[in-house]
Each structure stands twice: as C-alpha cells, then as structure tokens.
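Following up on my earlier message about 3,4-dihydroxybenzoic acid. Here are the inputs again, as you asked, copied directly from the submission form:
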Amino acid sequence: MQKRIFLSAVALAAASLVTSVQAQDTFKIGLILPMTGPFASTGKQIEAAARLYMAQNGSTVAGKKVELILKDDTAAPDVTKRLAQELVVNDKVNVLAGFGLTPLALSTAPIATQSKTPLVVMAAATSSITQASPYVIRTSFALPQAAVALGDWAPKANIKRVVSLVTDYGPGIDAEKYFKDRFTFNGGQVVETLRVPMRNPDFAPFLQKVRDLKPDALYVFVPSGAGTALMKQFAERGLDKAGIRLIGTGDVTDDDILNGMGDVALGVVTSHHYSASHKSALNQKFVEAFQKANNNLRPNFMAVGGYDGMRVIYEALKATKGQGGGEALLNAMKGQIFESPRGPMFIDAQTRDVVHNIYIRKVEKVNGQLYNTEFEEIKDVKDPGKTK
Ligand code: DHB
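Thanks, got it. Here's what our run produced:
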C-alpha cells in the first residue's frame, strides 16, 4: 500500500515535470478566424494554408514544438477580443494570428500592445490597422495598394465615367477614397459613390441606380465571399447588357468563388496582389499542394496571406533561436524578404506592412475554368495610405 502511494506520487511528479518541460518547449500560435457565419470561407482558406505550411515545413522549429490553437470568432469583434485575451492569459500563446476582417483586428490590437504579443494580420486590409498597435505585422494587403493601381489603369482603358460601389466599412472606404483620388487625378470622373451595408447586403437597389446613371464602368469593393451575389445581381439587372463594365479590387473575383460565377464574370478587370494562376514555379507548387490537401479547393488571396503569415512566424522563431519574448519575435518579423506564391514580398520594417507587386488581371476561361489572368504588373507597391 505504502509503496503504491509512493510510486503514484513519483509518477505524478514525473508527469508534471513532463508537462512543464513540454510547456517550455512549445511555441504556441493562437489562430483566430471566422470559421462559421458569412465570412467562413476566409477562415477555411487561412486555416488550410496554415496547416499546409506546417505540413511542408515541419512542426519542430528551433527545438520548439509549434502548436496551432484555432479559435472561431464567428466574425464578431467582441468575441475576437475575448478569445485573444484568453489565448494570451491562459494558453500563454507566443503569437496571435488570423483576423479575417478589419473590425476583428482593430478590437484585438490593444491586447497585443498590453501583452507585447506580435499580432500577425493574415486577412484584414484597411490601411490603418498597422497603426492600431506597434505589435501588428501584416501579411495580407492594404486596400489602397490595389485601388490606386486600378485608378491608373482605368483611364488607359478608355474608362472615363465611373460609379463606385463599396461595402460600408474600413476597407470599402479605403477602396473608394484611393480609387477616386487617383482616377480623378488621371482625368476620370467618379459620378456617384455608393455604400452598401456589410451585413446581409442587397445590391439590387444600388445596381438599379448604377444602371440609370449609365457610367462607363462600375468600380466595386466587396469583402471576400460577397462577389457571387454582386455578380449575379449585376447580370440580373442587365448592367452587362447595358454596356457597363465591371472593375474592382480583386476581392470581387476571389479565386475561392470565381469558377462558380459563370460567364458573366468573363472580362471583369481587377487589381490585386494574388491570383491562383500567377505564373511562377513556387505558386504552381503551392496551388497543387493546397488543392491536393483540400479536396481540390482553389486557394485564394486569403490562403496566401495565411501561408505567408506562417512563414514570417517560422522564420522569426528560427532567427530568435526559440529564445526571447514578443519584442524579439516582432523585431525578427520586421524586414523579412522572400518569395511568396503572390511573387516577391517584404515586410517593411518601418510600417510593419507588406510591400508587394500589384497585378491588373482579367477574368478568362483557361481549360474550361475561370481565372484572373494577370496582364500588367506594378512592382513593389507600398501602401499609399501610410503617412510615415
Ligand atoms: C477585408 C475583408 C475581406 O474579406 C477582404 O477581401 C478585404 C478586406 C477586411 O475586413 O479588412
């Protein structure tokens, strides 16, 4: 009896020793994403990409076991913030990552500042997010990068009068402002700016108005996933038949849903940093591996933001040799330069934001499938929204 008690006490002590050693040897990434609700495709794409990166690069880095802790915030900012707090306090995560929408990143930024935890934004794209905390690093994109490129391209394509239609929150407002300023500077005219609600948008009344205004083109921003409904109503209202072109930032012809849109999407011109048909050996490998691991799902720009975010985290962990806290990790994330499936990219050490190429693309049918075919490239685009 005595001996049994003694033995189990030894076992218990050994077990707790193992746990504490494990805790020390574990590097935790708290990945917060909308896995359910209207923005679940963003969560699904980023999770799949993060897991692919880990499968390809191993889960032991600098002697640490990398653990991904996935949480579903349902795209509610108060939930994102609470989950981040729990991840920092209870799970003691080393990095916070994900952030499917601007309000989710903004609500959580103060947690990163208070706890000195790097916060890697893999999706949200309003310019100002990187200024919400010195611990924010962004691997997605900034809307002004794409909007300005299209404002330069449109007049060259003989588009003179435009109506702008954007989802009414951070990225939409950036998309509207930066396109309008650049397009107007280039001699174009934005005859009307329309904003649709973020939740349950009904595009029909807005599109009717666009039809009546008869611009050369309708310029749009909608968040990833909302493009299908917009495209359908664009055709139903006969805007294509009325000779109104559709242009926008690449969010509207998102690779996740593009192929399901049908021929109405053919010829739509957009500006963005990633297309699944980007021509590089690295991207081809990425798309193939992603599709193989995910039942043939095509990766979109959200997946690439997640994949590159994992790269930035892994390399920072390597550079700090598994030692050092949030500050050291953050510093090792700044200034990283590498080839992404999107093309060359770097994290500007001053702004902590991504600098990458923006491509002008046109929807085309390739081997029976719809793709955003890149036909013009603007190199090394910094966020024009940054003041410093
Ligand atoms: C944001 C969300 C998107 O789905 C997108 O395509 C671009 C920006 C955002 O909320 O920041």
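One observation from looking it over: The CA atoms of residues 32 and 71 lie 5 Å apart. Hope that helps, and feel free to reply on this thread.
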